[in-house]
Every structure is written in structure tokens, then in C-alpha cells.
User: What shape does this take?
Amino acid sequence: MSADRPVSYPDVAGTLRQRTREAVADAELVGNLRASADAWAAGRTRMEEQHAFAAMRERARQIRTDAVGRLPELLRRLESEVRAAGGHVYFAADGAAACAYVVEVALARGARLVAKSKSMATEEIKLNEALEEAGLRVVETDLGEWILQLAGQHPSHIIAPAVHLNRGQVADLFAAESGRPVPREREALVAHARGRLREVFASADIGVSGVNLAVAETGTLCVVENEGNCRLVTALPPVHVAVMGMERIVAGWDEAAHLLEVLPMAAIGDDAATYVNLITGPRRAGEQDGPEELHLVILDGGRSALRGTEFEEVLNCIRCGACLYSCPVWRSVGGQAYASPYSGPIGAVLTPLLEGPTSPSAELPFLSSLCGSCDDACPVGIPLHDLLVRARARVRPPQRRRERAAFRVWSHLWRGRVGYWASRVAARVGLRLLGRRGWVHRLPGPGAAWTSQRDLPSRWPPT
Ligand code: SF4
Assistant: This one.
């Protein structure tokens, strides 16, 4: 089920262990992540106080489960409606096929400049690289994505790609790109980006966007955003290419309306996104705005193989990013450490499924404390905790043999009353001997790896 183009980023150096070690040691990075996660948590709490979120989540879960269950039928309907509205539809088996199609469309139009809005599917297939290899200039127009393009980095978060950078770091990047100092105030940064990007909207030959949801009954593509750049990318250039993962579909407008309500609540703790673009076909006769051509690329990339498996529910994801903010591991290391466009709990499950169990990403499910906070955060009720455990069971890295042996001994001891109490007494005595003022700062032997990042209470409850 692995895609031809691996999801991992070659620009991210080192092993998973090295990357996470460097990330937790970077106080500025951790401070940036915590600040954004705290802001998300405040919004989320406010939203849960104002809405019957549990009921909304259950309805959202049903909508997504129904859509994934009826995927072939809904995709056929979507295809026929998009074609009826004057658009082109291409089913891409993998990332390489999707990139080849978009490059072909661009070259056929003699295009030179591509304006892009944020799209995780295009990150996944490395579309920018494919277009640049074909000689095109690609400019990201989402503020966060443009910052990352200047920094040569990949997204740290599904909806807030540059969340790991602070304003000072962004001002430095803008100054390096423009050759003049840029103030670090929010308004100045936004004004600078707006000025630089405006010329791109006006002169781009092709606009490339993602798709948050496709509505099968009318062939409409819903693109949700807060900056207004998607509207320009999808309306100003003569050609619009939309790339969607094949699961990002719903049957009709009742379902779409509910998910479009739930998405900003979960993502940013707001009742509504600033812009919801609804695109049905290219510009028609008599209309003033819109592209002459619309191409919809529907990407499989390993998704269809997940249907009917124990991981099918991962296809219910609406990419809100809530599980990332809720995850204590993501909050400590950020998205760069995952070396995948999809980070946090959803990335730890999805990336190895798309890349295959022998890929370097196979270890990602271990980047979790299994605390279950992602389950609570998910607005479509994906059991991420269970999926992480199942994903761990798929891989057998040799370095985990000792860990498995330790768990086997533990399991054997706790099967009987004597073993259970004996191990508890031994642990209690050992921790008291090692503890200083109620805490153990360093365990001996293999336990040292565990205490290298955290302390352990030497008595319970901790003092
Ligand atoms: S798994 Fe759930 S919480 Fe995480 S991004 Fe997807 S929908 Fe959002």
C-alpha cells in the first residue's frame, strides 16, 4: 500500500530518536508550541461550553463512517457531477500519477507560474518538487506555507503549518528574502506578505488548491480558509487544479453543512471559518469570476487499501489538527520531528499506513504516551488511541526485543497474587532508595532512557 513517492521529507535529517531529542532540547521551539496549544485549548473549552459538542461529534462520526462505507458509489457520483458542470476528473492511483497529471496540465497550458493554497494532499505527494522539476515556479500563498517555503521546511501542523516559529523568526526570514529589515509586529509581517504575494495572484497561470470536502450530489468542492488566499488561487488564474484525498467526500449538503460547522470548532475553537469557498465547475458563460478550466485530481495513494481493515476509521479524518494540539508528545517535539506532512496522533497512525510497515515511518506510532487525549479531542470520534496500539503491533523493530521481554516478565508476574504484590513491594523499595526529596531523577540501566526526559515519583501520591 506504499505510495511511489515516499511521504518522508529528505530535508529532515537524523533518526526519529535524534530528531525528538533535538526538539525537546530547543526551548524556543517548545515555548512556541506550548503558546499555540494553550490558545487552541482556551478556544476549544469556550466552544465546548457553548455547544452540545458530544452530540455534534456523534453525528459527524456517523456522516464520515457512512461516506467511507459508500466511497466507490459517492466517487462515481462526484465524478459525473463535476464532469456535468464542465470540469475534468482524474483518478490517481498514487502520488507519482497525480503529480504527472498536474505537470501535464501545466505544460499543456504553457504555464510558468503556479500559485498554491494550503493542501496536505499536495504536501503528501510532493507536488511542488514535481512542478519545479518540470521547470515551473511554485509559490505558496497561505501565509504559514509561504513562511515555510522561505525556510525550506515542511509543515509542523495540519492547519497551522508554521506554528513552531515565532514572529521574530518570521521577520528574519522575510528580511532575508526581501533584502530589507521587516518589523516583527504582526501587522507589519502580514502587510509584507500581502505585498509580496499580491503579484503572484495576479500573474499565476495555474492555481492549485486542496479540498476540505467534496459534495457528491452536486459535484461541489468546499475549500475552507481564514486568509482569503484560496479564493484568489481558485478564482483568478485561468486554470484551477484541485487535489483531494479520495476519502474527503460526503453524500450531500446536509452532511457537508454539519462537517463545515464542526471543522472550525475543533480546529480553532471558532463557530465558523472566515471563508468557505464552494466551487462547482469552471466559470460559466456570463460569469465574471472563476477559471476557464477546472481539474479535480482524486488521490488514492494507499487509501482504498485501508477500507475494510482494522484501520478503516483513519479515513474518517477531516484534518482539523485538534489531536495534534491535544497531544503531549506533539506539544513537546512539534511536527518537524515526525518527518511527515501528517504529524501528531493522526500522523503517527496514517503515515506508516501510507508508506508501509518497513518504511522509516514505521516507528511513528511509538511517538505517543497513549494517554488518550487525542480520542477526546477528535471531532469525528476516531479511536486514535486504539489505532496507535494496533499500528505498534504491526512493527517489530529489533531494538524493542528487550522491551518486549520486560513486558512478558511483567505480565507473568501480575498474573498471580504473589507475583503482583512482590513486584509492587520491590518497586516501592527500589524507588525509595533511588529517590531524592520524593522524586527519582535517574533510573539505572535501560530505565535511564525513560528518566532522561522526565522524573518519576518515588512515592505515591507525589509530594
Ligand atoms: S484524527 Fe480527528 S482530531 Fe486528528 S486531525 Fe483528524 S479529525 Fe482532527
